[in-house]
Amino acid sequence: MILLARSGAVFTTILLLLSSRLCFALNAPPEIDLNGPATGANISATFTEDAGFVELCPAATITDDGTTLTELRLKMTPHPEDMSESLSAIPMEGLAVTYNFGAGEMLINGNAPASIYQEVLRTLAYNNASHTPTPTTRVIEVVANDGTNLSAARTITVTVVPVNDKPVVDLNGSSYGVNQTVSFYPGGPVTIAPAGALTDPDGGSLTSMTLTLAPRPNGALETLSATGGGGVTVSYNASTGALSLSGTALLSVYQSALRTVAYNNTAATPDPTTRTLTVTAQDPGGAKSSATAKIRMMVNHAPTGITPLSMSIAENSPIGTVVGSLSTQDPDTTNTHAYAYALPYANGGKFSISGNQIKVGASLNYESTSTIMVTVKSTDNGGLSVTKDITISVTNVNEAPTDILMIAFPVNKNSVVNDLLVANLATIDPDAAQAFAYTFTAPNNNAGGRFKIVSGTIRVANAAQIKADSQIDYPVTIRSTDQGGLGFTKSFTIRISNSNAARKWIVYQ
Questions:
Q1: 323 and 339 in contact (C-beta within 8 Å)?
Q2: What is the DSSP letter of 67?
Q3: Residue by residue, what is the 3-state secondary structure of 400-443?
Q4: Is the dihedral of CA 431, 433, 439, 445 positive or negative?
Q5: Of 63-67, 205-209, 216-220, 232-236, which range is least confident?
Q6: Angle at 334 between CA 333 and CA 337, to 5 degrees
Q7: Of 248, 247, 249, 242, nearest to 279 (Cα)?
Q8: Does domain 305-395 have CATH number 2.60.120.10?
Q9: Per CATH, the architecture of 403-508 is what?
Q10: Helices then strands (H, E): number in the chain?
Q11: pTM for the complete prediction?
């Protein structure tokens, strides 16, 4: 109960106090109207995949009987794409805008009039960058705070509409763009997209892929082919030149089939007009996309030469050793070539061909054959060829001696004198025209100094010792070394007899 005094001054004071308390008690919370002049305070919006940001409340209003607001909070529920979906707003006049992806919450804060908060709220937008957004409806709750009171919560309902993305046909793989250009040479076929790729932002599978060729001036002589499998069926219409791949299968399965697509033309003289092959892929949702391949018709020319026309290889080289690598001169620089032996010389019985390499195929001996002729044929991928004779020189390699011969005759002890010729030495060596150096060596050496070697002969070195010996057989070991440092060692027995038989040469092997 309030009692009013009759005094004018006291009555005035009580009225002022009462007015002040009533103003404080009547400070109302902020008011948010997300729909602006339209009916209701809430609003709805629709987001369509790949359409970009959608404005949520461009006509929203915020009112408050105070001078400023302190913050505006927005919370989105649910937010299944987390980092791919977000809320955004444009900060202005000292207001900060932050968004927490994990929580799906936006905070707009700072001391500013309701009119400034209203302008920021009107820029509020939603986006979802996912190519497979969850279609669940998002609800965004909006609450304003004036530092004393919170506004009533208002809601924005966002309907998310997924869109079936088109598959992507890329015929050239990692190269720029998605289209392709290939060259066809008579004698083909040519593979259209050996590194082709099929992708889809939505992932998953395809239901079909069609390939159409235009023009077809050579008619049924022009064909398309592909290898199916994994649920993909391949069919070709010879009258229309259309190649169809059908069946629901993973992108990877269709991609494997795409990489086998080939064009062929069996006409004797193919029409030179460039063909265009259009490849169209379709996903289960009916979305399609295409890419094209240009097929250039090339006139094949015969290769003109093979190089080198001469090679060399060391004798005794192991089988499989590369003698040399072949290359073909061809006006069509993109042609590939296969090599084979041909008449009249074929491979000479000594060599093989692997790829473009000539290799040793049998034992080579300079001393028996130093030059071998082979005939090589190079055939391009269009079936045209050139044939050339190639001279292969077998070079000499120093080979070790294989034997020593001692040509001796009987020597009588009674006639032994120093320097007496006992034997001549000879060496067997695969290499002709070699000179040899002879030395005594282990295990028998020179019979305790009784003999010496002089210019390829064995002579008496100690006649007195030989005469004093009771033995008649003297083991010696001789090494013959050729000019290249290779040698052969052999042991012999020199006989000094007590007989006066006539001296006759004896060959010891």
A1: no
A2: S
A3: CCCEEEEEECCEEHHHCCCCCEEEEEEEECCCCCCCCEEEECCC
A4: positive
A5: 63-67
A6: 90
A7: 242
A8: no
A9: Sandwich (2.60)
A10: 4, 40
A11: 0.52
